[in-house]
């Protein structure tokens, strides 16, 4: 008996000590030309492993124990790259595409972006690993951005972002470097009027399973970015595994995901990556379960196909599409009807699709070409019926609206590197915008054309001083107008490397952005059916000064001061309200507008970031800012999004209980100054039956400060051929009631405050094999 017991202990001990392994591999290429770098030195932290890249710029580390690694790459004549926070799990390889920059004395810092930085100031990389680790992101890169300084969510229910006091409408979504329509399910989520926004929604249609490292920029923007004044979220797709098939299955209260990737054949490096997702609430809805009368459903399919070409080039064919809907039905017990909405039946549908081709091709040792063609469209519809309280049948139609927003965008960019101190990049973006709106029996359509040539020179004057100097131009015209706007936009940035760990930066940019399509298309019969089509783009001069200091253990401090002067801002002349386009989100004012107003945003931001090392990470960021606008009388007011401050604390700790088990505890705390609202005229609202603001009102009502703590706890377990993750996210774990907006409710016969979401628990299970 004793012998049997000793044998059981022996085998159990060996089982607990078993160490599962996997592979880290990838390619190292020149950031400008895309050519492979042969002989680059690649090393991994926590190991004595080191390797040199092969003829195709490839490297490989097999039989590595699962866990965290930091990868460093160096090459003669190139700046050293360090990539922290690499999580290696059993059953799935880590394939890393690295782009190295030539020359110059670079800041000695850990960077999560294995490519050339896109800007000197106001840029943050967002990795898949961060999206899967940060608390309450729901695998959405836009929700990760709320951890950055000066960034606030417009509403808990959606991922629309207020950046440096700008409206969410000032933000631009890009896919593979090209502007697309709003890529989100339920684009009406969290809005006052329950109508779609142009930049946000409940869930990102593009699944995190397909995303690589994305870039979030808050200005001033480099020369290749145009038609934007607020912020850019530039999403990039990752390449599927080109050597072996891999799969991910995930079930959560958000949705059911399944992704597959691998090579098309063993004889080529062509690969596929595809993901399908169906909402969990949709499954419950199919079984007759709803939440407060709401039945929300969505599904989406995304793919990325990668085909290598000669001399280190590649062609990709990608696409994403999604369907979503939200149905509100009144409670059959009419005694429970408390608010005006309770007596309505509302049907909302959302369809989005985007697809495109890219070509990346080195032409020589100094020249490379990139071309992209992307088409995207968003179609939304909303029908609201009044419901008879006696028969519970539909009565009159209260609202009936259809919107179609489409874009076809093409881009060609040529990069030429003369030597280590001089690089030139030039190109052209061309976009056709199509918009259709149907409201009741009336309808309006609109086409606009935007051409954006740009040139940019990267110069290194001394080993410590470098600069980017560029010129962007936006040439635009709107259908049925003779007006063509041709707006030159100079851009410049300079970086002074004071020492190995310290740098100063300064950036300037003049930027322009077309108006929201609804402003152009709105019929205002007192002034003519096309009265707003002559609106010019809004323009913005932006200056940012930055300081950055790096410390040991993969940490850094960044401080930035910024100033934004917006001009040619459309402003309205209404008797009961004075509109400024800087305050608009989803609503479309029935007002004649002209470009005679201005706005101003300025502030200071600071962030301290420690990447995940020694089982701990932290990102602390905050900002103090002021955002104001000038009305049509020339008076300056607080803007709608002038919360005055933002603060976020994001951090976490990992604990390894055995060789196979990894526990993680992650927190995020948001404290944001309350946004503003206009005073509601209760007397006239009662007479008219809808919300009416006081005559010539401005945003004088400040809502309470926004506070939200989030928590994420996960448990990862490795097996020989797979790994799995069990996680629990708790958004707003304190259940704080944050104010969203105020309106006049007919049934209540009073001004009502609408609150944002309370505690939202999301349980998920992820299986990678």
TrEMBL record:
Signal peptide: 1-17
Pfam families registered for this protein in UniProt: CarboxypepD_reg
Keywords recorded for this protein, A-Z: Receptor, Signal
Name this polypeptide is given: TonB-dependent receptor
């Amino acid at each position: 008996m004793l012998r049997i017991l000793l044998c059981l202990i022996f085998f159990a001990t060996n089982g607990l000590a078993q160490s599962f392994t996997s592979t880290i591999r990838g390619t190292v290429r020149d950031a400008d030309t895309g050519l492979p770098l042969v002989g680059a030195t690649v090393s991994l932290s926590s190991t004595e492993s080191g390797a040199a890249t092969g003829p195709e710029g490839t490297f490989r580390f097999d039989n590595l124990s699962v866990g965290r690694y930091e990868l460093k790459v160096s090459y003669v004549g190139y700046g050293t790259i360090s990539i922290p926070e690499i999580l290696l799990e059993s059953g799935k390889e880590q394939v890393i595409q690295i782009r190295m920059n030539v020359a110059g004395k670079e800041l000695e810092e850990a960077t999560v972006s294995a490519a050339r930085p896109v800007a000197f100031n106001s840029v943050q990389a967002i990795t898949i690993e961060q999206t899967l680790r940060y608390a309450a992101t729901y695998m959405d890169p836009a929700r990760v951005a709320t951890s950055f300084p000066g960034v606030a969510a417009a509403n808990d229910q959606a991922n629309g972002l207020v950046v440096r006091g700008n409206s969410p409408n000032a933000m631009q979504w890009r896919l593979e470097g090209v502007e697309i329509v709003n890529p989100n399910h339920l684009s009406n989520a969290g809005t006052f009027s329950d109508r779609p926004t142009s930049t946000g929604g409940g869930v990102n249609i593009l699944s995190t399973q397909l995303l690589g490292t994305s870039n979030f920029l808050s200005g001033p923007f480099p020369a290749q970015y145009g038609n934007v004044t607020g912020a850019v979220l530039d999403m990039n797709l990752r390449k599927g595994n080109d050597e072996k098939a891999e799969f991910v299955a995930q079930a959560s209260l958000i949705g059911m995901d399944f992704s597959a990737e691998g090579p098309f054949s063993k004889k080529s490096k062509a690969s596929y990556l595809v993901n399908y997702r169906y909402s969990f609430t949709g499954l419950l809805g199919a079984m007759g379960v709803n939440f407060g009368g709401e039945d929300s459903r969505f599904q989406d399919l995304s793919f990325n196909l990668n085909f290598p070409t000669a001399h280190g080039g590649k062609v990709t064919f990608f696409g994403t599409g999604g369907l979503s809907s939200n149905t509100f039905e009144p409670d059959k017990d009419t005694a429970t009807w408390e608010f005006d909405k309770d007596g309505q039946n509302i049907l909302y549908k959302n369809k989005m699709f985007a697809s495109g081709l890219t070509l990346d091709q080195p032409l020589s040792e100094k020249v490379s070409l990139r071309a992209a063609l992307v088409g995207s469209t968003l179609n939304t519809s909303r029908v609201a019926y009044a419901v008879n309280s006696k028969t519970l049948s539909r009565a009159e139609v209260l609202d009936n609206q259809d919107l179609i927003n489409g874009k076809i965008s093409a881009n060609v960019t040529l990069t030429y590197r003369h030597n280590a101190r001089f690089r030139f990049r030039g190109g052209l973006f061309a976009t056709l915008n199509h918009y259709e709106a149907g409201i009741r029996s009336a309808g309006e359509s609109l086409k606009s054309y935007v051409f954006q040539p740009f040139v940019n020179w990267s110069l290194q004057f001394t080993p410590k001083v470098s600069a980017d100097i560029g010129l962007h131009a936006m040439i635009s015209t709107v259908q049925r107008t003779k007006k063509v706007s041709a707006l030159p936009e100079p851009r410049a940035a300079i970086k002074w490397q004071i020492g190995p760990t310290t740098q100063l930066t300064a950036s300037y940019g003049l930027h322009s952005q077309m108006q929201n399509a609804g402003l152009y298309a709105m019929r205002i019969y007192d002034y003519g059916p096309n009265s707003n089509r002559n609106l010019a783009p809004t323009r913005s001069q932006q200056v940012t000064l930055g300081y950055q200091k790096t410390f040991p253990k993969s940490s850094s401090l960044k401080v930035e001061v910024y100033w934004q002067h917006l001009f040619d801002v459309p402003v309205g002349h209404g008797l009961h309200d004075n509109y400024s386009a800087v305050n608009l989100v989803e609503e479309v004012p029935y007002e004649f507008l002209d470009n005679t107003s201005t706005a101003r945003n300025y502030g200071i931001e600071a962030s301290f970031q420690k990447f995940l090392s020694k089982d701990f990470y932290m990102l602390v960021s905050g900002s103090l800012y002021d955002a104001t606008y000038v009305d049509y009388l020339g008076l300056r007011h607080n803007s709608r999004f002038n919360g005055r401050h933002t603060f976020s604390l994001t951090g976490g700790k990992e604990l390894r209980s055995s060789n196979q088990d990894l526990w993680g505890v992650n927190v995020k705390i948001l404290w944001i100054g309350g946004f503003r609202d206009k005073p509601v005229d209760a007397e006239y609202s009662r007479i008219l039956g809808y919300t009416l603001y006081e005559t010539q009102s401005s945003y004088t009502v400040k809502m309470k400060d926004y506070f939200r703590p989030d928590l994420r706890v996960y448990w990862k377990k490795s097996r020989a051929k797979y790994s799995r993750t069990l996680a629990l996210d708790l958004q707003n774990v304190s259940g704080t009631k944050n104010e969203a907006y105020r309106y006049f409710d007919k049934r209540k016969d009073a001004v009502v405050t609408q609150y944002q979401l309370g505690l939202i628990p999301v349980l998920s299970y992820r299986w990678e094999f």
